[in-house]
């Protein structure tokens, strides 16, 4: 970290002001050149080799944070009208109106209600879950989200996908694209590791070294190609089913490739052999959803780095899908590379990402919610005897976890913590709570005791399945990679 | 902060000209009451739908600003005067320009608005109507459904606003009730297929006695 504090950021205006390239000092020129001339002779990405822990953007981040948070507070809930209702007024009312209907078993390829994954890989620990949204439960329709994770040696691969809500078989597109993308990355990285055993050493060279940059670009190309493979897999899935009347009967016409529309977000995490044990993270994305790196020990304002920009339209819910073949021509611009010491990579579909918007400033609250609900734990438990009087006072002010009836069975009440409510009761901002991990631990204990499971993926599943936010009823997928 | 939500804006443009007087306007009022009460039973609509009513007669005005479903009160509607439909479309455009939130870097936009239009005649301000109709269509800022109530309603005008035009053949109270029941179904279906791409408006089949104008 100390080293990072000396890092200078590339002046944003020099190249892409909206992207804010953050570079390690030594690599500044090399990567700036790269960004300025992304179209070298091969179809290579313009790697935004970046250093997410850099102090360089601190000042601009802080100011934008503050303005964003203030604006949000002021807009509740609508246009400042005095007689407006709070989100909680509405959600307490609608809680009992949400019905639960089973997944239809008469449709081909029904998807399971839940997916969870709890794996310790050589280079990471994966905690993942995906739950059927309230909307789908209410209507008795399938969940359209999917995710996959795999490893090759100490390299980790993750894919998440969200099938288009308006498309009947989008869930198949979601599953097939995730499987194809992760499968392709795994075996292609395996080949490259076998053929070039020193590639990790090359990647670990200083970023100003052209050999390192070339290696970065080659791996980025593999990640991009995995998206192309995903497209091919979805196309194959379509051709496999196009003459099958069980599918066409349901849509009431001939199947169309777009019936398999889904977003795709893929990431690869490659541990490097550097003094700071850095990781190279490569992400590529079509559609919405968010990949974010978190340095959990950095300050709130500097902790989160988004690993891509979701496609979004003029209105909510409008995005791009992998079935739009033209998008495959622009994958370079959809690829992000980051080299740094972040210890958590989060991938999520829009069902979660939309609840933490604007993502730049709110992903930190997502991390706090994960801590406060016992899904992730604070690394070093602190002796309560060492707490200050002020901290003990804050713990005293912690609210009871908020209970809502479980959609699947209204008689079961699920109690969860909400960062915004914790902050409200204790009287501090999320930025301050971020530094009070002991307070969060104390809050988490109350939830964890009720969850009755030691599996963090299971706790993640319960939380995803039951946290309540007004207007949030989509499928939710969240994959955490502790790297 | 947690109160921030993405709304599904629903605009009702209602013809309150003299020809709507009597049983018809009463049926419309009842229809709006039923619409609101049906939507209040639907958790998705409750969490997202915001409703506004714009009327047009000798003047056009927004009777109810975009209001959260739970707090929405039906405006008192009276029918008399001319059919300043073109002016109403202008009011709709103004309201959408000021009320609708678009996606930005720091703000999630609303869902694409839904506009339902009901008229039993043709615009008294035909020239204004043509100008504003093409403005509205060019904005592509909403999913619009127009209903022509009875044979006097000129569907060729409605076609200037949207490709989704319905024709209501008879004008009994029951027909109006059916129209609003269908609107309710459409709002709920939209709030369900909310991820649909622009132009992929999914609506329930029109009620019995209604025709889709090709």
Task: List the topology elements.
The complex is a heterodimer of chains A (483) and B (214).
Chain A lengths: L1 H4 L22 H9 L21 H17 L12 H8 L19 E7 L4 E7 L2 H6 L5 E8 L2 E8 L7 H26 L3 H5 L6 H32 L3 H7 L12 E8 L7 E8 L3 E5 L5 H4 E3 L28 E6 L3 E5 L1 H4 L5 H14 L16 H9 L4 E5 L2 E8 L2 H8 L3 H5 L2 H15 L4 H11 L9 E7 L1
Antiparallel strand pairs in A: 1-2, 2-13, 3-4, 4-5, 5-6, 6-9, 7-8, 7-10, 10-13, 11-12
Chain B lengths: L7 E8 L7 H17 L3 H6 E8 L3 E9 L16 H15 L14 E6 L6 H14 L3 E7 L5 H7 L3 E4 L4 H20 L17 E4 L1
Parallel strand pairs in B: 1-2, 1-4, 4-5, 5-6
Antiparallel strand pairs in B: 2-3, 6-7
Tell me about this structure:
The complex is a heterodimer of chains A (483) and B (214). With 483 residues, chain A is α+β, with helices and mostly antiparallel strands. Chain A has one domain (2-76, 85-376). Chain A is 38% helix and 18% strand. Chain A has 17 helices and 13 strands. In chain A, the strands form three sheets. Chain A has a six-stranded antiparallel beta sheet. A five-stranded antiparallel beta sheet of chain A has the order 3-4-5-6-9, with helices on one face. In chain A, a hairpin with a 7-residue loop joins strand 5 (264-271) and strand 6. The longest helix of chain A is centred in the middle third of the chain and has 32 residues, at 210-241. Chain A is globular and about 60 Å long. The relative contact order of chain A is 0.14. Chain B is α/β, with parallel strands linked by helices. Chain B has one domain (8-213): von Willebrand factor, type A domain (Rossmann fold, 3-Layer(aba) Sandwich), CATH 3.40.50. In chain B, 37% of the residues lie in helices and 21% in strands. Chain B contains six helices and seven strands; from the N terminus they run βααββαβαβαβαβ. A seven-stranded mixed beta sheet of chain B has the order 3-2-1-4-5-6-7, with helices on both faces. In chain B, helix 1 (23-39) runs parallel beside helix 6. The longest helix of chain B has 20 residues, at 173-192. The A-B interface holds A 68-69, 71-73, 75-78, 83-91, 93-94, 97-98, 134-135, 138-139, 164-166, 312-319, 354, 357-358, 418, 420-421, 469-471, 473-474 and B 1-7, 41-44, 46-48, 50, 68, 70-71, 102-103, 105-112, 141, 192-198, 200, 202.
């Amino acid at each position: 970290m100390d080293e990072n504090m000396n890092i200078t950021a590339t002046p944003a205006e020099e190249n892409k002001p909206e992207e804010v390239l953050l570079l390690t000092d030594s690599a500044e020129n090399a990567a700036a050149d790269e960004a300025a001339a992304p179209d070298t002779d091969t179809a290579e990405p313009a790697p935004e080799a970046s250093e997410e822990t850099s102090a360089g953007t601190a000042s601009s981040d802080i100011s934008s944070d503050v303005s964003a948070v203030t604006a949000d507070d002021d807009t509740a809930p609508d246009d400042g009208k005095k007689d407006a209702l709070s989100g909680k007024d509405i959600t307490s009312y609608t809680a009992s109106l949400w019905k639960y209907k089973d997944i239809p078993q008469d449709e081909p390829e029904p998807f399971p209600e839940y997916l969870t994954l709890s794996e310790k890989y050589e280079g990471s620990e994966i905690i993942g879950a995906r739950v059927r949204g309230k909307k789908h439960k209410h209507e008795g329709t399938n969940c359209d989200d999917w995710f996959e994770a795999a490893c090759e040696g100490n390299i980790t691969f993750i894919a998440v996908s969200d099938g288009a809500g308006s498309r009947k078989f989008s869930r198949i597109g979601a599953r097939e694209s995730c499987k194809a993308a992760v499968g392709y990355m795994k075996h292609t990285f395996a080949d490259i590791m076998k053929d070039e055993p020193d590639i990790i050493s090359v990647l670990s060279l200083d970023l100003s070294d052209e050999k390192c940059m070339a290696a970065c670009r080659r791996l980025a190309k593999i990640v991009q190609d995995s998206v192309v493979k995903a497209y091919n897999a979805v196309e194959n899935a379509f051709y496999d089913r196009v003459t099958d009347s069980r599918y066409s009967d349901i849509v009431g016409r001939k199947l169309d490739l777009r019936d398999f529309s889904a977003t795709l977000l893929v990431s690869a995490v490659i541990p490097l052999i550097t003094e700071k044990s850095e990781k190279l993270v490569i992400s590529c994305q079509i559609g919405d959803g968010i990949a974010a790196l978190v340095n959990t020990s950095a300050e709130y304002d500097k902790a989160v780095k988004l690993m891509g920009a979701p496609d979004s339209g003029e209105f909510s819910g409008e995005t791009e899908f992998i079935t739009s073949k033209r998008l495959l021509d622009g994958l370079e611009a959809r690829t992000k590379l980051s080299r740094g010491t972040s210890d958590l990579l989060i991938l999520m579909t829009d069902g979660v990402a939309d609840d933490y918007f604007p993502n730049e400033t709110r992903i930190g609250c997502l991390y706090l919610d994960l801590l406060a609900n016992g899904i992730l734990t604070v690394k070093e438990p602190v002796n309560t005897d060492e707490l200050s009087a002020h901290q003990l006072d804050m713990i005293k002010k912690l609210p009871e976890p908020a209970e809502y009836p479980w959609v699947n069975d209204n008689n079961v009440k699920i109690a969860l913590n909400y960062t915004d409510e914790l902050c409200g009761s204790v009287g501090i901002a999320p930025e301050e709570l971020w530094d009070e991990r002991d307070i969060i631990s104390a809050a988490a204990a109350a939830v964890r005791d009720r969850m009755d499971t030691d599996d963090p993926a299971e706790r993640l599943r319960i939380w995803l399945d039951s946290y309540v936010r007004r207007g949030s009823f989509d499928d939710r997928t969240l994959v955490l990679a502790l790297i | 902060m947690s109160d921030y939500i993405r709304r599904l804006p629903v605009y009702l443009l209602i013809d309150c000209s003299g020809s709507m007087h009597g049983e018809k306007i009463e049926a419309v009022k009842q229809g709006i009451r039923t619409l609101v009460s049906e939507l209040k039973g639907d958790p998705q609509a409750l969490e997202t739908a915001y409703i506004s009513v714009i009327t047009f007669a000798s003047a056009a005005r927004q009777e109810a600003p975009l209001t959260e479903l739970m707090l929405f009160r039906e405006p008192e509607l009276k029918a008399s005067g001319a059919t300043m439909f073109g002016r109403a479309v202008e009011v709709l455009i103004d309201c959408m320009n000021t009320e609708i939130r678009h996606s930005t870097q720091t703000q999630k936009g609303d869902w694409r608005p839904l506009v339902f239009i009901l008229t039993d005649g043709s615009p008294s301000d035909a020239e204004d109507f043509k100008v504003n109709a093409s403005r509205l269509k060019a904005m592509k800022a909403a999913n619009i459904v127009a209903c022509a109530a009875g044979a006097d309603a000129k569907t060729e005008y409605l076609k200037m606003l949207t490709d989704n035009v319905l024709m209501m053949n008879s004008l009994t109270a029951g027909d109006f009730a059916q129209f609003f029941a269908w609107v309710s179904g459409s709002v709920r279906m939209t709030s369900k297929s909310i991820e649909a791409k622009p132009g992929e408006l999914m609506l329930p089949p029109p009620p019995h006695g209604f025709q889709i104008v090709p």
